[in-house]
Amino acid sequence: MSLLCDLANKYRTDKGTQGEGYHSFTPFYAKFWEETRFKVSSVLEIGVNDGLGKTMSHGSSQKMFQDYFPNAVIYGVDINEKFLFNEGRIITFKADQTNEKEFMEQLSKFAPGRSCFDIIIDDGSHDIIHQQITLGFLFPKVSSGGWYVIEDIHTSNWGWGFPPGHPDTTLSILKRLASGEHINSKYMTPNQAVFIESQKEFCEIFENGRDHVTSIIKCK
Fold it and tell me: Which of 26, 57, 65, 100 has its Cβ near the most Cβ atoms within 10 Å?
């Protein structure tokens, strides 16, 4: 088992491998990040776990990343102010992932002078439309050689807004991206889609059954 898996299970994030309903995403991530984890200087994650009434703990994912990337500042974003906390190299702030103007204003306030992030993770609302809106305006904030992750895209299999297999689901657009086709998302501008297509080195989708699906895009 990788260090990332050990830390995920220590802090009880559902990205890990131990726990009822956990997704086992960390073995997939570790194969990309293990050899370069000391070089990562910044991580931006949408979604701060509240830790209330669940098997997971508060801020579990941010705490995991703080330990795994020892030279990185970890930024956490959530729409619910009650979930925010600061600890060590963890800085969290409130923003709506569907409101580009507000999000960028908050980003410049809490991460001043930082134009890009080595890793961006969308573990926010899991709403299909929200995922695509956020990908459109945040992908340009990934550093060259960095990574953009969209987690919990199994909501595309659950009929959240569209029936499973519909071409407008996030899973469908990412499969097109992975195969070199046009994204054709209704929820980003044509320029945003072209930028993602042109700056993608590769896209991989990890499916641990129908209800545990994540993705990773490597930026050129």
Answer: 65
Instruction: List, as one string, the DSSP characters of the chain.
Output: --HHHHHHHHHT-TTSSSSTT----HHHHHHHHGGGTTT--EEEEE-----SSSSS-TTHHHHHHHHHSTT-EEEEEES-GGG---BTTEEEEE--TT-HHHHHHHHHHHSTT---EEEEEE-S---HHHHHHHHHHHGGGEEEEEEEEE--GGGGGTTSSS-TT-TTSHHHHHHHHHTT-----TTS-HHHHHHHHHHEEEEEEEESSTT-EEEEEEE-
What's the structural domain count of the chain? Answer: 1
Question: Catalytic: 126?
Answer: yes
Kindly name the residue from 23, 126, 130, 154 that is annotated as catalytic: 126
Task: Give percent of the chain with pLDDT exceeding 90.
Answer: 81
CATH number of the domain encompassing residue 22: 3.40.50.150
158 has a pLDDT exceeding 70: yes
